[in-house]
Design brief:
The complex is a heterodimer of chains A (about 300) and B (about 250). Chain A is α/β, with parallel strands linked by helices and about 300 residues long. Chain A has 10 helices and 16 strands. Chain A has one domain: TIM Barrel, CATH 3.20.20.70. Chain B has 6 helices and 15 strands. The chains are: A alpha/beta (about 300), B alpha/beta (about 250).
Chain lengths: ~300, ~250
């Protein structure tokens, strides 16, 4: 019997698989395809202080082994999410992680603090790494002292464990990780998308209206694995890993690099059943490579 | 309800320049699809599925017909798929046209280019229920024209080509004066065409089908939204649409 359970701050996961923020909405659409109680956790789409409409369309474009997106954090605002979306997800036997976004430190504090009002959210993912909004977001995610400051403020505003979502668009990912760990982060979530661009030859125009977007999908997986491995050597807080996962083998690779759980993003678009299929395949994959549990595999890369 | 289904390719042929007609077999989708809905088709090696509108359904034979134009790597790959192959499809997707015959005697269909296909299944459904169907179909040029006879079987049909190589020269809006009285209009085509039509026919009740590059195709990713005059302020094309009341959306 392979043990898939993972214990993380605030999260008592039955398995390490969760859909990534922004790739699963608030779960309703995917609940048509399988029982969401099967998931280890669900990371909700980003919440901001007020409703945001987001960027002009087209907002997505396919790339080699991945995609670019520039949605622009469209969401109904934190209060409506608590009122309309959290109660729906609370019907399922899974952990709920809220993704907290903002343009200013005050907005991050406001959004994080507002989630104190519901007992159904188990942890926060602090989104300091969205590449697709003009202000805030990635500015906090590329400067270690800004990242530390927003982490500290959000920790004070919230009574939930905080996982800081790191941007790969930095030269020193370890420095960023250490900065937010020192500021009180309970865990890390990495990596967000890499800023990219693609040009359509017939029109000579960028393929997405925002010109640039966040690159995700299998194309970025080796970057994610490398960054998780490097960060794991230098921090003691747990890591939720993500970046191009499409199979149980990919999950094991992230565990070996040092992730304690993983999020699946773009692959939900290719196959809406992917999280469920990975959960089914994970025990045999762990067994095949000689592990008896998920916890047994974490950080076990052989160097 | 949208489901992940396997559809077998029964036939595939090029029926006009760069335009392929493909017949796919699947009982669930053929039984449940309504005019205006789409299939979200996975092609090996592609991370994003391709949304293709349903052009016709034969419930008895369990067949769904799609018509698509080879416009990029995904549709070119789809055109190469042989009969007998299985396609991984999410469908039927979105909300289609509401077919309501009450108080109606004539409906007008206006299709432009690859926006013509969803008009066919809608027109056929209305015609089968005894409603007069008038069609105005626009194409780039003679070599792009398809389904002219099929639409003629439904009712009076006007063909327009941009270069005048077949039918009237110009855009579908140039041919609207030829159309007699009608109750509602239905349209699908390029955005500039839809803007011109909704503007010209603003006194009429109309329903339009929109397209946009999609991510998930099920309403989760917010890639294909458009502004609306409704309270919420936006709609998702893949799951709230692709069919909208012409007066509700901001084009």
């Amino acid at each position: 019997m392979i043990d898939l359970k993972v214990q993380l701050p605030g999260l008592n996961l039955k398995n390490p698989i969760m859909p990534a923020s922004g790739c699963f909405g608030f779960g309703r659409e995917y609940s048509q395809f399988y029982d969401l109680s099967k998931l280890g956790a669900i990371i909700m789409k980003a919440a901001t202080g007020r409703e945001r409409f987001g960027n002009p369309t087209p907002r997505v474009a396919e790339t080699s082994s991945g995609m670019l997106n520039a949605i622009g954090l469209q969401n109904p605002g934190v209060e409506k999410i608590i009122e309309n979306e959290v109660p729906f997800l609370a019907n399922y036997d899974t952990s709920i992680i809220a993704n907290v976004a903002g343009s200013t430190i005050e907005e991050y504090e406001l959004v994080a603090g507002t989630f104190n009002a519901t007992k159904d959210v188990h942890a926060l993912e602090l989104n300091i790494s969205c590449p697709n909004v003009k202000e805030g977001g990635i500015q906090f995610g590329t400067n270690p002292s800004m990242a530390a400051k927003v982490t500290e403020k959000v920790k004070k505003a919230s009574n939930l464990p905080v996982y800081v979502k790191l941007s790969p668009n930095v030269s020193d990912i370890v420095g960023m990780a250490k900065a937010v760990e020192s500021a009180g982060a309970d865990g890390l979530s990495m990596i967000n998308t890499l800023t990219g661009m693609q040009i359509h030859l017939p029109t000579k125009q960028p393929l997405i209206a925002n010109k640039t977007g966040g690159l995700s999908g299998p194309a970025i997986k080796p970057i994610a694995v490398r960054m998780i491995y490097e960060v794991k050597q230098h921090v003691s807080i747990p890591i939720i890993g993500m970046g191009g996962i499409t199979s149980a083998e990919d999950v094991l690779e992230f565990l070996l690099a040092g992730a304690s759980a993983v999020a699946v993003g773009t692959a939900n678009f290719t196959n809406p059943l992917i999280c469920s299929e990975i959960i089914d395949a994970l025990p045999a994959t762990l067994e095949k490579y000689g592990f008896t549990s998920v916890e047994d595999a974490i950080g076990k890369v052989v160097i | 309800m949208i489901k992940k289904e396997s559809m077998q390719v029964i036939s595939s042929k090029e029926i006009a320049k760069d335009t392929v007609e493909m017949k796919l077999e699947n009982s669930y989708i053929s039984e449940t699809a309504v005019p205006g809905q789409f299939l979200h088709i996975l092609l090996e090696g592609h991370s994003l599925r391709r949304p293709i509108s349903i052009a016709d359904v034969d419930k008895e034979k369990k067949l769904v017909t799609i018509l698509f134009k080879k416009l990029g790597s995904g549709t070119e790959q789809l055109a190469e798929v042989n009969s007998g192959a299985l396609l991984d499809v999410l469908g039927p997707g979105g909300n289609g046209f509401t077919v309501d015959t009450k108080g109606k005697s004539t409906v007008l269909l206006i299709g432009g280019g690859i926006g013509v296909p969803p008009m066919y299944y809608l027109g056929k459904t209305y015609a089968n229920q005894g409603i007069n169907v008038i069609s105005v179909l626009g194409f780039q040029s003679k070599e792009h024209v398809f389904y002219e006879e099929e639409f003629q079987e439904l009712g009076e049909t006007f063909i327009v080509t941009n270069d005048g190589s077949y039918g009237d020269k110009g855009f579908v809006t140039n041919a609207l004066h030829k159309v007699g009285k009608f109750d509602n209009y239905y349209s699908c085509g390029p955005l500039p065409m839809l803007k011109a039509i909704t503007n010209k026919l603003q006194e009429k009740t109309g329903f339009i089908s929109l397209e946009e590059r999609m991510g998930c195709g099920v309403g989760a990713c917010f890639a294909c939204v458009l502004p609306t005059k409704t309270e919420k302020g936006y709609k998702k094309i893949c799951s709230d649409g692709p069919v909208f009341d012409a007066r509700e959306v901001v084009l």
